[in-house]
Amino acid sequence: MDAAPTVGELTPPDRTLMGPGPSDVHPRVLKAMSTPLVGHLDPSFIEIMDEVQNLLRYTFRTDNKWTIPVSGTGSAAMEAAIGNVVEPGDTMLVPTNGYFGDRMASMAERAGGEVVTVDAPWGQPLDPAAVEAAFDEHSPDVFGFVHAETSTGVLQPSVPELTDIAHANDALVIADSVTSLGGVELRVDEWGIDVAYSGPQKCLSCPPGASPLTLNDDAMDKVLSRESEARSWYLDISLLEGYWGDERAYHHTAPITNVYALREALRLVAKGIEERWDRHLRVAGALKAGVEGMGLEMNAPDDFWLPSLNTVRVPDGVDDGAVIQYLLDEYDLEIASGLGALEGDIWRIGCMGHSARRQNVSYLLAALGNALGEQGAAIDVDAGLAAMSERF
Amino acid sequence: MDAAPTVGELTPPDRTLMGPGPSDVHPRVLKAMSTPLVGHLDPSFIEIMDEVQNLLRYTFRTDNKWTIPVSGTGSAAMEAAIGNVVEPGDTMLVPTNGYFGDRMASMAERAGGEVVTVDAPWGQPLDPAAVEAAFDEHSPDVFGFVHAETSTGVLQPSVPELTDIAHANDALVIADSVTSLGGVELRVDEWGIDVAYSGPQKCLSCPPGASPLTLNDDAMDKVLSRESEARSWYLDISLLEGYWGDERAYHHTAPITNVYALREALRLVAKGIEERWDRHLRVAGALKAGVEGMGLEMNAPDDFWLPSLNTVRVPDGVDDGAVIQYLLDEYDLEIASGLGALEGDIWRIGCMGHSARRQNVSYLLAALGNALGEQGAAIDVDAGLAAMSERF
């Protein structure tokens, strides 16, 4: 690599992001990203850290002291949660009803834990009775579940029932709220969730890079009394506590700009989180009505429909990838294919944060209708658009 | 946390950053940060990934295929290097002549490795004879050294001698180039470095969040033939390879905006890396001349002076923290205190990337002179400024 490569100006296409994330970023958040930096130990940054922590508490609906952005994308916050709470010798119970339970399992095993599963079909939520049975059989120390499963578009209902079972068995509960935080009702304290993590690029509509994590005192007691150190230095919460806690000691250089952006994204949430949940319900409801009005079928059962991530079954004879490519090429519009067991069977259409707007939904439905028309699918675009606009 | 916290507009102070990082970010890089996002699997982003990888190869002076930005700050790239290359049962040799050798040790232990040390006083580089002796005694599998030690301001000379010793003993070499990449001569291939990692917020003048890492084929062979999985899922290079390599498979959502920024920062490097090294030498040389001309003493010996990070001894009777606070309060100027064993004894003054400019150095010297005057230190500011301007 002797000569310097010739690389031109940064001119990415102007996409409308309706996939499983990232979602469209609010202009105020983009603007915050170009703010000149202060140092990560600057007194003014300490103040910003406090503000972000308070805003995160509000968004998680928690009073947890240990509420921080982890310096990485959502999977970093996920690994911080699992890698610190699960100690070698612990047993973690994980779900098998979606893609992200497998990731939990892999992280728990790498942390030195044993993994047991509670089964449910892909596209269905966990049944509390099955969770109870798994507890009876395996006595796990930690129970992880996915509140909003991005691979299936399923929202886990009855969270307090699940946490009650875990607590009756002296286990800690870790909730994956990557695709729910800030878009779908989530109440960490009221629902008895011990640890929750999320990503910023979903319903918070913030560029990825600093990811929400919260732990209650029970979880932190376990983390701080581990017999062996966490296996990651970078994600060791007992060390991060030195920086985000009272001491403000140097651990690693925080991603300052990403923290700026998260602050701005959370200020938008702080306009009123319940209204924000309602907006997601309303706008995604119009999207769902439009999709169904066209004659397409949702993958997730109505009772467990996840507004922030809509899974739509690919009609017979239609090439899912060709539709995705057509939307990208002709409409600069991103949706995604199925993941894991549902690859080829569904499309995943996000409706998150700044993408959860009527502008985006009406554009998506019109474009999707045309893309399916190109594929010769027997759908009724007009009926879909009419069903959508009734909800607007 | 029922009520939404009241958090105002983001208005951090307008700092001049002359500490150990972050450095001042180039306006073009800040602007890139506010570019709207595309998806992390978008074809246009794949192209950007290729460009960033090529630019990183140019900057590292390497042809290594496995050259990527890790999704986190510099310590994430550090842990990706150590946590993947060191397997349980391996022995890693680390230095004791600065703060970051300890961090290497902690990461190697958490990876399941045994740690042995090669000693040198804080403020001195490693002596090849001592490295050779440590190899004879311990037969380590991996040898880590710090090319540019941010805690002491010492540049490790004679890198090829060190790598020759390691290779003669069939060990892999990991180089910490956090404070050298893009600012100080570093030639990964020519010098026989197997793995190098860095941070973006030092000599690359990019906000932290996506951090350079390169591995040659020998190192990747070891990583890909590990008996046990790496202990971090997030930083597992064999999985990252699926995303950054030919397959382009989803692993985690890349920090898109940080990759945009790194691309722009590296485009500035690609104007000519040797000129950039020269500029750092020249501008930091003026800083050093100015500091010494005032009557202050550098901590690092002249032969091992690190242009990007200048350590200055605190004169007797002067309160190091008061000077730092005065510069921050009166000049919006950041420098840093000593770290670890040198806390209280030195100041650390960065001269990196966009901060390695005459504007910054003349401002720093004038302000530092006034701050020391406030403290009643016997220094000759005019002589310092004259010595500086001779080098301009």
Provide the succession of SSEs of chain A.
Answer: EHHEHEHEHEEEHEEEHHHHEHEEEHH
| Largest binding interface between chains | A-B, 93 and 93 residues
- According to CATH, the homologous superfamily of the largest domain in chain A is Type I PLP-dependent aspartate aminotransferase-like (Major domain)
| Residue share in β-strands of chain A | 5-15%
**Largest sheet of chain A, order of strands side by side?**
2-10-9-8-5-3-4
Number of domains of chain A: 2
Structural class of chain A: alpha/beta
Which quaternary structure do these chains form?
homodimer
Poorly predicted ranges of chain A: none
What does the largest sheet of chain A look like? 7 strands, mixed
CATH class of the largest domain in chain A: Alpha Beta
Considering DSSP H and I runs of 4 or more, what fraction of the residues of chain A is helical?
A: 40-55%
Shape of chain A: globular
Family (chains A, B): Belongs to the class-V pyridoxal-phosphate-dependent aminotransferase family.
GO molecular function, one term (chains A, B): L-serine-pyruvate transaminase activity
InterPro entries (chains A, B): Aminotrans_V_dom, PyrdxlP-dep_Trfase, PyrdxlP-dep_Trfase_major, PyrdxlP-dep_Trfase_small, SP_NH2Trfase/AEP_transaminase
GO biological process, one term (chains A, B): glycine biosynthetic process, by transamination of glyoxylate
